[in-house]
Amino acid sequence: MGRLRLVRWSRLRNLARRAIAVAGLLSGVAGIVPAVAADDHPGRRIYAEKCASCHGERGERTGTNEARPLAGELSLNQLAKYIEKSMPEDDPESCIGEEAQQVAEYIYDAFYSPIARMRNNPPRMETARLTVAQYRNSLADLAASFLWQGEWDERRGLDGEYYNTNRRAFRRLKGQYLKIERVDPNIDFDFGSGSADTNLIPPDQYCVHWYGGLLAPDTGVYDFIIKTPNAGRFWVNHKFTDGAAGEYGGGDPLIDAVVKTGDTDEYRQSIFLVGGRVYPIQVEFNKSTAEKVGRFQLMWKRPQGEDEVIPGRYLSPNRFNETIIVETPFPPDDRSAGYERGVSVSREWTDAMTFAAVEFADEVMAKIYEFAGLSEENSSEHETRLRKFCEQFVERAFRRPLTEEVRTQFVDQQFESANDPFVATKRVMLLTLRSPRFLFPGIDSRNFDDYRMAEWLALALWDSIPDEELRQAAAKGELKTRDQLMAQAERMVRDERARLKVKSFFQSWINDSHYQFSKSSSLFPDFNSSIAADLRTSLHLLVDDIFWSEKSSFYELLTTTDCYLNDRMAKFYDVDIEIRKDFQRVPFEPANRSGILTHPYLLSGLAYHDSSSPIHRGVFLARSLVGRRLKPPPVAVDLEPADLHPDMTTRERVERQTSSPSCFGCHGIINPLGFPLESFDAVGRFRQMERGKVVNTHVVYVDHRGQEHPLNDARELAKFLADSRETHSAFVELLFQHVVKQPIQAFEPSLHAKLTDSFVDHELNMRQLLVTIAVDSALSARDHSGSSK
Q1: Rounded Cα distance, 657 and 620, in Å
Q2: pTM of the predicted model as reported, rounded to 2 decimal places
Q3: Do residues 470 and 545 both lie within one domain?
């Protein structure tokens, strides 16, 4: 009778699944099919008798014991096996067989499964302020909207002018002293006792001036370094000049190595830069007759990087204007949901925002003649021009045209109450930047109109404010249809700001802030911080190359057998390539490696100092690749040292330590994903043996549906993940969260599945997915806002 009842419940559950699927309510979790738990389900009675005293009536954690909320990633069959083996904790043998299956069904359908959790606690779209990145980018673009900007095109390197004198070459003397003009790929020269061209440039004295732009790939503090036994100066983010009035650079240089102190040949200074932006740079190098040799290097240390000559890929010979950068430190944004969100307004954040607004206003006022188009000769027009500047400033900051009410409050009243139009201008900026209309996007939108669309796209793709083209499109009513929005989004992803957003996504995706690169000097004597920095650059170059290629293939990201290597990496990993200092894309152990899963940056970062770590690697794959939500371990336990079990491999020690029932819920997912990577050691080198034993990489992975997948090695694992709907769905959700800063489940129920379907239909094109997420999230938000006008 019990078995018959179970069959009927299974049939009922299947019918319910089909009904809900037809209704379109499942697509928030692609590939997971829910069930409906009726109040008279036989498992409900068993749960009430044997489970509720610890786990609560609805699986909530009770306040009197340490039972965790009943939610997880096990399939229904796995959950039933776990209950039969381990529950209740005080009498595991009392719930087995059919009872274990029935209570598992009830728990799974009522509150355990992802669908049940969404049904019981549906996500909602949260009111959010600007994140720190969005705030800094918005201010930088707000200021830039009033100034000319240079063009970052395909040209690389710096514009070099070589003079046959060691004095500064004034413009009026260029014809006399300028002998060579060329574009240099970077600044790394050892002229020795000669010069760039001894026929044109005498070796005893000469000077070189380089001009152009520098792209900052990351946000943070940069060290810039000049190495020379001669003299030199360096400007960055300055007002560009070309030698008029006998001076180069704008104001004081960041590094002044003209007057030498002591015997040092190295000069270093730091500056904070916002990533994804191009800054004007100028460099001056002078060799005098008293100096025997001429050498000059321009280097940097990027955030989380090492000292290196600035690569040519970050340099442009074109001219660029300066960028206003807010350096005020902010408290970090909330990341508890797995992505940055502006959901908290603390006293620390409010203070930082105020200080940043003052810093920004001071910077603008120092250059207000340029920003507002003022002239010394026509002071009678100052107030008129400053009013116009302020109106445009407020309109661009609030991302929509000004109403009379807003113009009166934010502009007119400030000019009426101040005796000085310059004082009024600063007040307008401070009032604007502290207004919720600027800090909380969308809060001033009475309906989801074209200006709200422009604001949405700019935040989604640039973390910033709309540019002039977006503003004009909104003013013309050209941001209504999907085709119109797609055209704008496709234009916007070609901007360097979109590249930064993509890069920050992958940095968040691999979560490398907790990687371990300190390795045992006795086991890995040649592994050092320079190798670690090379590995990071190598991975970023590969991801960047694949993402911005024509196919932008997620499949290639997981399956390519290529890697970016320089001479130092090639030597360490014993790859036979033509030695070259800079990175080049080459085949890398194609019989053993596959995509980013086997990239040595991930493998070495997700390892201990003396051994691999299948747990760290498996957790990364579970969370970032297949989207499994892992609960924190009940007790934080480090893997037992290898010396305690000298006859055991790392896999054997992990299996031994995670075999208890309390570990099964998560390690049943983690271990099968981590073990195939055991053919790579703690620094990411391939191995076949460990402690005298053949490395065992065979596993059986159980997916969301409970289906088993035998996998033999890392390449089979990568191929399986590249083809898996589970992986595609997880990637869509993670990218969506990073772009939109909202949970995907808070939008229309079918959006997740629609985006995943589109991703697959477009052959896993990641750039196309980025565009589609920006557009379809905006349309979904508009269509469910109650207004589309």
Answers
A1: 19
A2: 0.85
A3: no
